[in-house]
Amino acid sequence: MNLDTKLRRRAADGKPVRVGLIGAGKFGAMFLSQAGHHPGYHVLGIADLSVERAKESLRRVGWADDRFAAKNADEAYKNGTTWITENADALIEADGLEVLIDATGSPAAGIRYGLKAIEQGRHLVMVNVEADVLAGPLLAQKAEQAGLVYSLAYGDQPALIAEMVDWTRAVGLQVICAGKGTKYLPKYHHVTPDDVWSHYGLTPQQARDGGMNPQIFNSFLDGTKSAIEMAAVANACDLVPQDCGLQFPACGVDDLPRLLSPRDSGGILDRKGTVEVVSSLERDGRPVFRDLRWGVYVTFEAPSDYVARCFSEYGLLTDPTGRYSAMYKPYHLIGLELGISVASAALRHEATGAPRVWSGDAVACAKRDLVVGDRLDGEGGFTVYGRLMSAKTSRSARALPIGLAHNVVLKRPVAQDHILTWDDVTVEEQDPAVRFRKEMESTFG
Predict the structure, then answer these.
(1) How far from the centroid of its chain's Cα atoms is residue 252's Cα?
(2) Is 151 helix (H, G, I), strand (E, B) or coil?
(3) CA–CA separation, 337 vs 340, rounded Å?
(4) In the sheet where 425-426 sits, what is the strand order?
(5) Domains and CATH numbers, the chain
(6) Which DSSP letter does residue 405 get?
(7) Cβ pair 325, 318 in contact under 8 A
(8) DSSP state of 267
(9) How much of the chain exceeds pLDDT 70, in percent?
(10) Residues 6+ positions from 111 with CB-CB distance below 8 Å
């Protein structure tokens, strides 16, 4: 409740929270737009593969050129401006840096930069949920051992869900299910970057004008991002995915307690303490009434008749038994809210959600019939989509993580909608991301 006060005190003392950002895409640009409106943040530097692209992102969100004219990190530190570089390692090493934000979207890059940030004593905010699901539990453990914060990104749905789960448990209620909304139809699993914009109701030009990457946004549509984000929630909140993964039921906010309760109580869940994503579309394409496409939710159970009566007295929507209810947030503001994670890490030494167990995994599933010699193109691409599994099932099946299903070649065919395994692909065993993932599996398995 007092982050703004703490930030302004730091600014008054001439010690704003100094932040480094890797990746100036859509999420990063949204954070930069807000960081420029609060004196408690100093964006010391931005690392991006294209300096010009980073500059254009800053101009797009309203920064004047003289604010990012620093020639190096020392100059940026001294005069309160921002340094833009292609060298992420140099940014992480820059004197005065407190918090590093990884917004690259690359699992391998997230692991590499995350480890370097920990080595350099920087708190780490992992926008890169792909890296978090691939090996976040081990990264978080290493950060904690170094006395640092590893945090999910506030504004992104997993951190907001983790906050709601924490609230539910802190007031003494049992979490039944936690999750988010999305636009989903079964056919979306096979959509490719070539036809993604028609499903969003955009033209390719409108998408380009908004700085929207078709492969990244396709991952939201084809179910991959939902699998990844629910794996992140399971790991951060110690929840166990359902045996079927995700069902994507068509569900509005009024039906959350009824549908997202156990089957023996009339719901669709095979266990309590799980995750699910609700669709804003009926299976025939009609819009769901009072949908939760942009929001997050948690359902919970009354521990006694007295609490169930309180649910009724205070107008909570419940299932027919009166024992299951829900709280929800209809929107999330993505990078506009990211400063909460930065401030929480720097000023409170607390994460806005962080993996503490390895409970959920997002694995690669064939988007079409794949043949020997096919090269996988990863999340949101033409060859695979992500599916949620429990970590226990994933390890037993030797399922290939979606985060490693990029630029690897098939050595045996896989039928459409079948899960890929480590044995189906040729993997470079000495690749740092592969080695770190296997270390994570060994540590938490």
Answers:
(1) 23
(2) strand
(3) 6
(4) 375-377, 406-410, 425-426
(5) 3-155+335-348 (3.40.50.720), 158-184+223-331 (3.30.360), 360-444 (3.90.1210.10)
(6) -
(7) yes
(8) S
(9) 100
(10) 131, 134, 135, 139, 432, 433, 436
Cα separation, 30 vs 155, whole angstroms: 10
Please give the distance of CA 442 from its chain centroid, rounded to a whole number.
23
> Could you give the count of Cα atoms lying within 13 Å of 409 in the half-sphere of its Cβ?
5
**Quick one: tokens of 125?**
């905010």
pLDDT in tens, 306-355: 999 999 999 999 999 999 999 999 999 999 999 999 999 999 999 999 99
| Residues composing the chain | 445
pLDDT > 90? residue 82: yes
Q: Burial of 64 by CB count in 10 Å (0-12 exposed, 13-18 middle, 19+ buried)? A: exposed
50-56: average pLDDT? 95
Coil, strand, or helix at residue 170? Answer: helix
Q: Burial-class residue 62 by CB neighbours within 10 Å (0-12, 13-18, 19+).
A: exposed
182 strand-pairing partners: 279
User: Are 391 and 358 in contact, with CB atoms under 8 Å apart?
Assistant: yes
Q: Quick one: tokens of 184?
A: 């989903």
Average pLDDT of the chain is 96
Q: 261-310, pLDDT tens digit by residue?
A: 999 999 999 999 999 999 999 999 999 999 999 999 999 999 999 999 99
Q: Tokens in use for 47?
A: 């690392």
Can you point out the beta strands (E) in 232-354? 274-279, 296-301, 324-329
pTM: 0.96
**CB contact at 8 A, 404 and 435:** no
The phi, psi pair for 245, rounded to 5°, reads: 85, -110
DSSP readout, 321-344? TS-EEEEEES---GGGGTHHHHHI
Supply φ then ψ for residue 124, to 5 degrees: -125, 120
Please check the confidence at residue 210 and state whether its pLDDT lies above 80.
no
Three state DSSP letters for 147-212: CCCEEECECEHHHHHHHHHHHHHHCCCEEEEEEEEECCCHHHHHCCCCCHHHHHCCCHHHHHHCCC
Cα separation, 47 vs 24, in Å, equals 8
